[in-house]
Amino acid sequence: MREWTREERYQRYEDVSTEALIDLKSTVNQSPYRQTFHIQPETGLLNDPNGLIYANGTYHVSHQWFPLGAVHGLKYWYHYTSEDLVHFTPQGPILKPDTQYDSHGIYSGSAFLFDGQIYYMYTGNHRDEDWQRHASQMLAKVETDGTIHKFPKPVIAAPPEGYTQHFRDPKVFLHEDALYAVIGAQTVQEEGCLLLYRSEDAIHWTFKGQVETDLAQFGYMWECPDYFRVDGHDIIMFCPQGIDAEGEHFKNIYQSGYLMGQFDIENQVMQHGDFKELDAGFDFYAPQTFEGKEGQRILIGWMGLPDTQYPTDEEGWAHCLTIPRELSVENGILKQRPIQALQHLRTNEETALGYANKFQRQLHPYEGKQYEMLIDVLDNEATAIYFELRTSKTATTVIEYHTRTQEIVLDRSESGPLPQPVDGTRRTTRLITPLTQLQIFVDTSSIEIFCNDGERVLTSRIFPPEGATGIKASTESGQAYLKFTKYELKG
Ligand code: FRU
Questions:
Q1: Where do the Glycosyl hydrolase family 32 N-terminal domain residues begin and end (predicted)?
Q2: Whether residue 133 has its Cβ less than 6 Å from ligand 1
Q3: Surface-to-core class of residue 486, CB atoms within 10 Å of its CB (0-12 exposed, 13-18 middle, 19+ buried)
């Protein structure tokens, strides 16, 4: 990967020649890894989902965007609209780094409705002459005609005393007639935490305090916080950086998880159980939630990780967003299911019913690179079941189910080129109940595995060769009676 100078990273894309942009676009378009039903950057790097909202009949989805290459440089927000969260219309960049306060990046933030208008609150990232970071929270109003009016000055100018300039990613929510913003922060002792602000007019914000939790010394920075209530439970989500792996948990470079319990907003006190990971896959970070058309809680994540090089970097682009998931809490368990509307993408249903045994079996005529696969485990006397997807003579992506331990393992050791540095090639999650169902979404270079109707999810990029289209099932010993339903997905 070529080295990018600071000047190159902080170049405005409006200043780049049309020819250079056309060249970049044509390099990107030649990539064999372009996705078909996921939001991906037209060029350059995508990271966090931003400004998610459903308002006046339209969904709005934006994301962090550095247009000029697959590095974290000068960030914009790139905007899409959608009627159903499945088909998206690109609207181009909506927030650009063009003021003193956001001169070095429009960082992550959220959307909210106030007086019937959409507002965005985001972090303005500024670097001074000594390259010192200055973070402030900025506000932008979307006018009725769709034009965006940025407020000239930050609405929260700086972190409170006792906190560093790692102060970002405001998530605004409404609670009893007032607006609140939860913001990711770091204490001067370099501990990650969340700060809470309150406002009655969206413009003037008062610092309420640090959110009290039972977590002490839990990483050095908490990014991308969120708060919402679902099925009578309060959930605070955030992405702690600097947590050590514990057995099969916290294996990625940075984590993304949640606390569930009761949040006393007036006093900023969260009573909660353990911090739990949202996703057990390799590539998942910075999720954000919002309320959908029917009041349901929907989550979209970034299918990538910071500080990691991906095989598409050389092709001038990196990353995509996850498919949207609907959240619910059932019997105390947070469940994540792909949104129903994804069924609009289904075509060409094929089904198969049969026993899998230790002789590896190719599911003919099944094959594909972009599809949804439902696997019902109707009876299982096997010690372990192996599902292989995107297989060829040289590549395979394996999902293992170990019956005794109820563990699902995703093995991408032979999937194709891997993101670097490689931190293990297997990810494991233990199911709460024996495996009955898998719902798997495969796109050109990704796999999202929903286990037991949303009990666990594993989200990962994979970069298989183009000819790797096979699907196989087998067991370690004993047999399993399985039903497969496969749909091609037309994005
Ligand atoms: C998380 C993050 C945010 C920040 C943004 C910058 O991936 O580091 O904390 O606002 O990305 O692109």
A1: 38-338
A2: no
A3: buried
